[in-house]
Amino acid sequence: MYIDTDLPYKVADIALAEWGRKEIEIAQHEMPGLMALRAKYGAAKPLEGARITGSLHMTIQTAVLIETLVELGADVRWCSCNIFSTQDHAAAAIAAAGVPVFAWKGESLEEYWWCTAMALSFPCANGKNGADCMCSANETNNANGAGCKGPNLIVDDGGDATLLIHKGRAAEIDASTLDVTTGSHEEKIILDTLRTILKEEPRKWHDTVAELRGVSEETTTGVHRLYQMKERGELLIPAINVNDSVTKSKFDNLYGCRESLADGIKRATDTMIAGKVVVVCGYGDVGKGCARSMKSYGARVIVTEIDPICALQAAMEGFEVMTVEDALPEGNIYVTTTGNRDIITLEHMRLMRDQSIVCNIGHFDNEIQMDRLEAAPDVTKLNIKPQVDKYIFGANANANAGANAGTDTGAGCTGAGCTGEKNSRSIFILAEGRLVNLGCATGHPSFVMSNSFTNQTLAQIELWTKQLPVDVYRLPKELDEEVARLHLANLGVRLTKLTDEQAAYIGVSPDGPYKAEHYRY
């Protein structure tokens, strides 16, 4: 069987659990929002009876989220949303605590999608089929009860769990939806995974959707997917957009990246950022945090943007704004932050300065054209250490780059790809184009993740305790302000209190919310 719900967990090394537990205890002190929710809701168990699947980086901070959901009454299964982002000691600690976890650092893509399917598959009562199970007719003799139940709720980061369910259900209606030309190696693996499940459990995803109450989505890319599915009439379940809560997007995306980007680059390369030219592709919240971080280290920062408002913001902050193509003669470090595809192309990489560092802190690996780079016949890959690879461009690469750029890559070269040494150019790719802060370091600090995960927990309670129509929602501003309030004492912050007269003057309640829904922080 592809899915085996008798398997209690799969992690790299369960012996790491003690180390993980020690770090979880440290993180709890830095995550006051989640601990406050445990104190407030622990006795009431508002998630009692809910089966929750998490597809989100299996880190120490996520471990605190998982144990908060469990303390609030949920039955939880978990996988990571990135092949490199799992902290193995965190996964081991959660598995040892009895929560089924399917995650380890360095998964293959085939293993990754198996882990996602396992996290979406809950065993039936006592691990066997029973009257309370939703098994299809051809599954009733299945000893391990594989796939008998799906989740009631999903905590998603990037939308992979949501995608698997929606594509899987569509294939159960019309299997030909899987017979398409794939645009990437990973897409082929997704379709192969769904074919295998369809053969073994032909109604798995219909049965899952029947009891699925909703999803809360963590990140920009996943939120974009949800809105696109809604517009196309494909969204099957209510969804809460956690990403655009102010206490998520303005904290995790901005302040988190401001610290974790440099952490990832330095752990991977030990490079000195001061004096370098860093090209930050995108100036949304993530790009803003990255640009400010690199500037604070002494780098000269160039920003690329498509949005005139964001471009103007970058210029007003003192950053140069130009295209990637214009930045190639100058850049030493490239950081993609957009959540879009093909931001750094193979042609760009051919023209970069020798020994340039290229990394991504947007959600997916297709911001950098990794598939094309890997397939290029004139490019040699040399692994330096886990998640750090050197790509060496051969003679043909240099010749072609010179021809395309109108420059000579031989003696006397003055173009973007010149090194002063013929045919010896190379670049470094971090985390295979996936999230550098999680692939090469440990992600955002605990305190900022407490903001994000407090929102996630509140969203899960909202979905479980209310029957919401299918749509994409945001948490109300009152809850956004409450999430912020829960973190103030930890920083020694004391709020000023509005008088009744002051509140009346500006037309708000003395207790908030203090800003209109359209206010941009």
Give a brief description.
By secondary structure, the protein is an alpha/beta fold. It has 20 helices and 15 strands.
Give the strand order, joined by hyphens, for the main sheet: 9-8-7-10-11-14-13-12
Shape: globular
Show unreliable segments.
126-132, 134-147, 397-417
Strand content: 5-15%
Give the terminus-to-terminus CA distance.
Answer: 50 Å
What do these coordinates show?
Helix 2 packs parallel to helix 3 (60-71) and helix 3 (60-71) packs parallel to helix 18. Strand 12 and strand 13 (388-393) form a beta hairpin. With 521 residues, the chain is of the alpha/beta class. The model is unreliable at 126-132, 134-147 and 397-417 (pLDDT under 50). The protein has 20 helices and 15 strands. The protein has helices spanning 17-29, 32-41, 60-71, 88-96, 109-119, 160-173, 185-200, 204-211, 220-231, 246-269, 285-296, 308-316, 324-327, 346-351, 370-375, 395-405, 436-439, 446-465, 477-488, 500-506; strands at 51-55, 75-79, 101-102, 153-156, 214-217, 239-241, 277-281, 300-304, 320-321, 333-336, 356-360, 379-385, 388-393, 426-430, 472-473. The N and C termini lie far apart (50 Å). 42% of the residues lie in helices and 12% in strands. It is globular. The chain has an eight-stranded mixed β-sheet with strand order 9-8-7-10-11-14-13-12. Strands 3-2-1-4-5-6-15 form a seven-stranded parallel β-sheet, sandwiched between helices.
